[in-house]
């Protein structure tokens, strides 16, 4: 049976286009229920015994949620208790359209066999298809379609079942829809009343999202905020130029201030300052908002005040606080200032934080304080407040009515006790948006079946390199081995060198759930004691890991080089290898140094090591930078998992041996894929920093009378080499650490969307990532491009679409940045644990930066960096003189310069459990009234407060 | 809406409710046009095509075009101005149309027993009245019926169908939204009895490994189409016979 469906679609130019689409109705879509005897279905999803103890419905029942219930109560639907749910195609499509994250979550639930969620393709079922009636709106049609499907199920199951009294319950938020459902004899509840009826599981109630804004508005309180403009008015306003669209960024230190970053094509970007609660108008960090600029006479200057929202005193006059913002500022400091008039897109996510329990004993409403200071407090309703005290919890925002000082939200999940290692790790993963859930069944479904072996099919387009003496060299304990190497003499006197990389793209095929999940994760994240894999463990630690003495699929880059490490020939091939040894850097070094060893592997390593040294020398001559940053490693106690010692990373020759060949492979592959796909190559670039970035570095060198040249990477590298101060061996390292801070971030990009490819740090005209496909998604794309280039695999549409690739690059850049932040946060947390167990320590350090009111100190022993502040808002401050040109800061009678040696005490400040921090106080030089004595550090708590560090 | 269209649901249904290998509904009539020696009209879903055949007749225009051992096939493909949803460009005589004309010519040179008509010409005109994907395929299918209507002997019905991938699943007989979905579209014209391929055409690169799967899907679809066309021809013959008998 056939229906034609007509759509009216707006085209990009604003015109209207009619689309006629065919719509087939079928007789072979089944109900999916175990009890049914009339549908000839092969398998069923919905259980016979769908029993839930509910005071509203005593018989077993299936739930049919409407679209809004799925969108807003996904936390409830995800709960393991909720099973046997019918998800209508109509609902699923609309959810897909409205919210990508919720869509992903509901799909995961559908794929989870234990949930018994069944998708019913109602719009193609002959008996549940609904045609739009005259005068019926799209929303009305949508609701009616859902009711018709629910009615069909009700009647179908009544007919189909034997003895049981199985019911179908329609869950809706909409009172009118519920009424209409009851008119046609359906059982319908709103989600709240149903969840509250589940007598056996009262804890589910806390996870309910609060009712929509309108329901709350009438019942209490005066209006605090101006109304938001509707979207149509916003669009008109933006078109006419009266309103600006931008991303709202809350100020971390001042809850009454924010800025909106406005990007306009072809015009300069503007940052609009927003001050005061009414102007902030319920926008939350990261929302896309519409702002209206205030007249120039009302423009303000960003305040330097630190203001923390102190909590639940609702009656307090906020205006007074807002007055603090209006400091007298010179005209020059004034910034375009505006107010938020509407929300274009909310970018709310679930937030980590802690409950501030209400002081009223019986209260069920409490304020939640997010860990991220840029997020406002959230009011939630819970009956387990006492149990949640001291716990890190997750809360989602449901809405922000205009009569409420704080947004309303609901409790989602308890992460565990604050300060606990597992809990804090979870928090930092969530706060850095690192996807770290267990891989879903849908994803795992695309893994190869075990036991796995290489088949004849796999050997097509693949070279057999099992005979080669390949080995891998990695840090100790490495289980995801991406790369392996070999080197052998050729008959013509040249050498053959091979870099063999795990053939991950053989296992992860474009577009499937496994691929999508890896692409979304973008990178494996390494925390101090945990690794969050980009691909499931079966691949990362087993099938793709190039372990010794097993056959593994690889992608090989093989060069013929002469003894001057000059490339004579390059070729690429998919291969199968059998690594002869998995070595640590130290083991490899030992073999190279031990003259008594002369086996094939050792000879191969020596050849590689010799070539690597030549390669490195050449690279540095070309102007590649070797910068250092103190990388901290923790020794973790194997029993308690507490950090027992910190160590800055030590590099061996063999580290750089492997690195050299990885760089070479990456460059060779970059050239090849760019040559073959000039529009679609995924490359990596590292822009040269703007000259002003180097100011601080040049000044630092000048302090010891060295001249640094920054006009090119080569000049910088050479002058850095020359800057070695007598009797101050750490000086050069400090300069290099500082130089690292001057650099730009390296980024992925699509060659067809950019013209500047240069990699500044490596001094290479072109570069990409090929060598770590187990832990970086970019490398998987590069593998696919290279495979297509050599005819070993096929292309697919997204690979040959530069816009899609640019979007992918953006996500990868974002994920890498967040992974880096998460890693730093993890180091910071473990540093705190370390100092917690050590008590107060006295350490030597160097001044890395001199600021207006503080010095930044690096403790080389721990690679730890911290700030000593000389200003405190409620105390008598010492006399400070700052000279930016040098830079130098005089505190009373002592002047601090860059790289001065100081002594500090280090301790842990846990006064705010959500924001524990390492605190540093000055011990030497002694400045009366400012510095502390090392012994008394513990006693002079108030004194130490002014010299603290944000780690 | 950034999400785009979901071409194949997890439940295995396409946008319009078909399963991956199902064809769109086909409706066809022969002898719909008084002029010309043969004609046919076909609807494959929302794609509607009209084909008219003239000939065989003497070669028109320059005599040099004539072939001494077989007939010249002349094909002209065009799109009605109202045939597409977007009405911005003139669909007449553009590059795409002459490309399809060329493909039709190749297809029917392979299917018509041209050696029976040396030094003559057969004209096939096809117009797409409404377009919703598979223009070439609908044209071939309409033209086959029109050629049969004109009484010109064919080696076999020539049937055409398109196919494309959504991830690893091949879809048969693509509608416009599916063609526009970004994947490689393959069009194949088949002489089903002998299994010869009259024309194979793709609009983008496709790896060899995927080609077999996609060709298989298109060929299966062509075979099902040929049964439909066969039925149309038989019904038409019956109608004509009844008419003449009266
Ligand atoms: Zn049934």
From TrEMBL, chain A:
Gene3D superfamilies reported in the protein's UniProt record: 2.40.50.690, 2.40.50.700, 5'-nuclease, Nucleic acid-binding proteins
Stored PANTHER family: EXOSOME COMPLEX EXONUCLEASE RRP44 (PTHR23355:SF35), RIBONUCLEASE (PTHR23355)
Quaternary structure (record): Component of the RNA exosome complex; within the complex interacts with EXOSC4, EXOSC7 and EXOSC9 of the exosome core complex (Exo-9). The catalytically inactive RNA exosome core complex (Exo-9) associates with the catalytic subunit EXOSC10/RRP6. Exo-9 may associate with DIS3 to form the nucleolar exosome complex, or DIS3L to form the cytoplasmic exosome complex. Exo-9 is formed by a hexameric base ring consisting of the heterodimers EXOSC4-EXOSC9, EXOSC5-EXOSC8 and EXOSC6-EXOSC7, and a cap ring consisting of EXOSC1, EXOSC2 and EXOSC3; DIS3 associates with the base ring of Exo-9.
Name of the protein in question: Exosome complex exonuclease RRP44
Localization per record: Cytoplasm; Nucleus, Nucleolus; Nucleus, Nucleoplasm
GO process terms (BP): CUT catabolic process; nuclear mRNA surveillance of mRNA 3'-end processing; rRNA catabolic process; rRNA processing
Family statement: Belongs to the RNR ribonuclease family.
The keyword Nucleus appears for this protein: yes
Required cofactor names: Mn(2+); Mg(2+)
Example of a GO cellular component annotation carried by this entry: cytoplasmic exosome (RNase complex)
From TrEMBL, chain B:
GO annotations of cellular component type: cytoplasmic exosome (RNase complex); nuclear exosome (RNase complex); nucleolus; nucleoplasm
Domain Exoribonuclease phosphorolytic stretches: 22-153, 156-220
Any GO BP annotation: rRNA processing
Short name of any one Pfam family annotated for the protein: RNase_PH
The organism's taxonomic lineage, starting at the top: Eukaryota, Metazoa, Chordata, Craniata, Vertebrata
InterPro entries: ExoRNase_PH_dom1 (IPR001247), ExoRNase_PH_dom2 (IPR015847), ExoRNase_PH_dom2_sf (IPR036345), PNPase/RNase_PH_dom_sf (IPR027408), Ribosomal_Su5_D2-typ_SF (IPR020568), RNase_PH (IPR050080)
Keyword terms of this UniProt record: Acetylation, Cytoplasm, Exosome, Nucleus, RNA-binding, rRNA processing
Record field: transmembrane: none
UniProt-annotated location(s): Cytoplasm; Nucleus, Nucleolus; Nucleus, Nucleoplasm
Family, as annotated: Belongs to the RNase PH family.
Quaternary structure and interacting proteins, as annotated: Component of the RNA exosome core complex (Exo-9), composed of EXOSC1, EXOSC2, EXOSC3, EXOSC4, EXOSC5, EXOSC6, EXOSC7, EXOSC8 and EXOSC9; within the complex interacts with EXOSC2, EXOSC7 and EXOSC9. The catalytically inactive RNA exosome core complex (Exo-9) associates with the catalytic subunit EXOSC10/RRP6. Exo-9 may associate with DIS3 to form the nucleolar exosome complex, or DIS3L to form the cytoplasmic exosome complex.
Record PANTHER family: EXOSOME COMPLEX COMPONENT, EXOSOME COMPLEX COMPONENT RRP41
MF-aspect GO terms: RNA binding
CDD domains: RNase_PH_RRP41
Primary location recorded for the protein, binned into one broad class: cytoplasm
Organism annotation: Lepisosteus oculatus
Name under which the protein is recorded: Exosome complex component RRP41
């Amino acid at each position: 049976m056939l229906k034609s469906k007509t759509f009216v679609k707006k085209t990009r130019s604003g015109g209207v286009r009619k689309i006629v689409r065919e719509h087939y109705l079928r007789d072979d879509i089944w109900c999916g229920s175990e009890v049914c005897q009339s549908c000839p279905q092969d398998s069923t999803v919905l259980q016979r015994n769908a029993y839930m103890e509910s005071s509203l419905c005593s018989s077993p029942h299936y739930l049919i949620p409407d679209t809004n219930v799925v969108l807003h109560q996904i936390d409830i639907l995800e709960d393991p208790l909720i099973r046997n749910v019918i998800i209508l195609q109509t609902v699923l499509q609309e959810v897909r359209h409205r919210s990508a994250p919720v869509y992903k979550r509901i799909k995961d639930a559908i794929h989870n066999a234990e949930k018994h969620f069944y998708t019913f393709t109602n719009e193609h079922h002959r008996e549940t298809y609904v045609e739009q009636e005259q005068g019926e709106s799209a929303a009305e049609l949508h609701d009616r379609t859902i009711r018709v499907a629910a009615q069909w199920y009700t009647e179908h199951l009544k007919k189909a079942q034997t003895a049981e009294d199985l019911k179908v319950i329609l869950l809706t938020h909409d009172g009118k829809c519920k009424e209409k459902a009851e008119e046609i004899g359906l059982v319908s509840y709103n989600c709240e009343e149903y969840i509250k009826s589940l007598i056996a599981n009262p804890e589910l109630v806390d996870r309910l999202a609060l009712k929509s804004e309108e329901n709350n508005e009438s019942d209490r309180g005066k209006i605090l905020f101006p109304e938001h403009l509707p979207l149509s008015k916003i669009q008109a306003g933006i078109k006419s130029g009266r309103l600006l669209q931008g991303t709202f960024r809350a100020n971390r230190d001042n809850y009454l201030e924010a800025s909106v970053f406005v990007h306009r094509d072809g015009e300069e970007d503007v940052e609009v300052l927003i001050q005061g609660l009414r102007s902030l108008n319920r926008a939350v960090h990261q929302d896309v908002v519409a702002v209206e600029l205030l007249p120039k006479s009302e423009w303000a200057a960003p305040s330097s005040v630190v203001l923390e929202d102190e909590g639940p005193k609702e009656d307090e006059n906020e205006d007074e606080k807002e007055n603090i913002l209006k400091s007298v500022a010179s005209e020059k400091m004034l910034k375009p200032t505006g107010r938020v008039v509407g929300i274009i897109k909310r970018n709310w996510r679930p937030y980590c934080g802690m409950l501030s329990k209400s002081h009223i004993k019986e209260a069920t409403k409490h304020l939640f304080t997010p860990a991220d200071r840029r997020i406002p407090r959230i009011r939630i309703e819970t009956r387990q407040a006492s149990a949640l005290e001291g716990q890190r919890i997750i809360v989602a925002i449901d809405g922000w009515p205009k009569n409420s000082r704080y947004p309303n939200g609901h409790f989602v999940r308890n992460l565990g006790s604050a300060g606990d290692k597992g809990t804090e790790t979870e928090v930092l993963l969530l706060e850095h948006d690192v996807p770290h859930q267990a891989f879903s069944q849908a994803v795992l479904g695309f893994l190869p079946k075990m036991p796995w072996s290489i088949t004849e099919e796999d050997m097509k387009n693949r070279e057999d390199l099992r005979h080669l003496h390949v080995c891998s060299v990695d840090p100790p304990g490495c289980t995801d081995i991406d790369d392996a190497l070999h080197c052998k003499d050729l008959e013509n006197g040249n050498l053959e060198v091979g870099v063999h990389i795990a053939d991950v793209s053989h296992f992860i095929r474009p577009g499937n759930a496994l691929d999508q999940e890896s692409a979304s994760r973008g990178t494996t994240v390494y925390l101090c004691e945990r690794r969050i894999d980009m691909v499931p463990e079966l691949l990362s630690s087993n099938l793709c890991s190039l372990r010794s003495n097993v056959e593994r699929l690889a992608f090989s880059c093989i060069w013929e080089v002469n003894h001057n490490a000059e490339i004579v020939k390059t070729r690429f091939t998919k291969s199968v290898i059998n690594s002869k040894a998995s070595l640590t850097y130290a083991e490899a070094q030992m073999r190279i140094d031990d003259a008594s060893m002369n086996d094939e592997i050792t000879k191969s390593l020596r050849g590689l090591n010799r070539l690597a040294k030549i390669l490195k020398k050449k690279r540095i001559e070309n102007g590649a930078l070797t910068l250092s940053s103190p990388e901290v490693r923790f020794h973790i106690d194997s029993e308690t998992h507490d950090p027992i010692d910190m160590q800055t990373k030590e590099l061996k020759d063999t580290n750089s041996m492997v690195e050299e060949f990885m760089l070479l492979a990456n460059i060779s592959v970059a050239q090849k894929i760019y040559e073959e796909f000039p529009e679609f190559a995924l490359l990596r670039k590292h822009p040269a920093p703007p000259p002003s970035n180097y100011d601080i570095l040049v000044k630092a060198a000048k302090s010891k009378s060295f001249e640094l040249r920054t006009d090119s990477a080569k000049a910088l590298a050479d002058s850095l080499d020359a800057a070695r101060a007598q009797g101050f061996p750490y000086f050069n390292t400090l300069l290099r650490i500082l130089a690292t801070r001057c650099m730009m971030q390296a980024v992925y990009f699509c060659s067809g969307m950019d013209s500047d490819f240069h990699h500044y740090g490596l001094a290479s005209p072109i570069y990409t990532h090929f060598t770590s496909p187990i832990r970086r998604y970019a490398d998987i794309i590069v593998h696919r491009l290279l495979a297509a280039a050599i005819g070993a695999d096929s292309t697919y549409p997204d690979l040959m679409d530069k816009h899609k690739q640019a979007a992918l690059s953006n996500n990868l850049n974002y994920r890498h940045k967040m992974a880096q932040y998460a890693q730093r946060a993890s180091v910071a947390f473990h540093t705190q644990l370390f100092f917690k167990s050590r008590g107060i320590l006295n350490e030597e350090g160097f001044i890395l930066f001199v600021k207006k009111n503080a010095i930044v100190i690096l403790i080389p022993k721990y690679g730890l960096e911290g700030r000593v502040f000389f200003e405190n808002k409620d105390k008598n401050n010492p006399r400070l003189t700052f000279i930016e040109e040098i830079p130098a800061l005089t505190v009373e009678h002592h002047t601090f310069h860059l790289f001065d040696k100081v002594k500090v005490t280090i301790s842990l400040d846990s006064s705010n459990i959500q924001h524990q921090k390492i605190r540093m106080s000055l011990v030497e030089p002694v400045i009366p009234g400012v510095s502390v004595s090392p012994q008394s550090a513990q006693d002079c708590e108030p004194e130490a407060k002014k010299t603290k560090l944000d780690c | 809406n950034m999400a785009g269209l979901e071409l194949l649901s997890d439940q295995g249904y396409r946008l319009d409710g078909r399963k991956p290998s199902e064809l769109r509904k086909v409706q066809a009539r022969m002898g719909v046009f008084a002029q010309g020696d043969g004609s046919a009209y076909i609807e494959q879903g929302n794609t509607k095509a009209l084909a008219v055949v003239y000939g065989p007749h003497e070669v028109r225009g320059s005599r040099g075009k004539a072939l001494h051992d077989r007939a010249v096939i002349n094909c002209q493909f065009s799109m009605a101005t109202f045939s597409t949803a977007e009405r911005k460009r003139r669909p007449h005589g553009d590059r795409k149309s002459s490309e399809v004309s060329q493909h039709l010519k190749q297809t029917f040179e392979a299917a018509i027993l041209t050696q029976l008509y040396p030094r003559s010409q057969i004209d096939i005109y096809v117009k797409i009245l409404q377009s919703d994907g598979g223009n070439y395929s609908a044209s071939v299918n309409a033209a086959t019926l029109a050629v049969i209507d004109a009484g010109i002997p064919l080696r076999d019905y020539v049937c055409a169908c398109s196919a494309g991938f959504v991830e690893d699943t091949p879809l048969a007989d693509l509608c416009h939204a599916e063609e526009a979905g970004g994947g490689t579209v393959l069009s194949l014209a088949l002489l089903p009895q002998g299994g010869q391929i009259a024309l194979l055409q793709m609009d983008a690169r496709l790896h060899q490994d995927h080609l077999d799967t996609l060709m298989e899907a298109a060929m299966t679809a062509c075979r099902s189409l040929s049964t439909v066309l066969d039925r149309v021809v038989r019904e038409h013959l019956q109608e004509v016979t009844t008419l003449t008998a009266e």
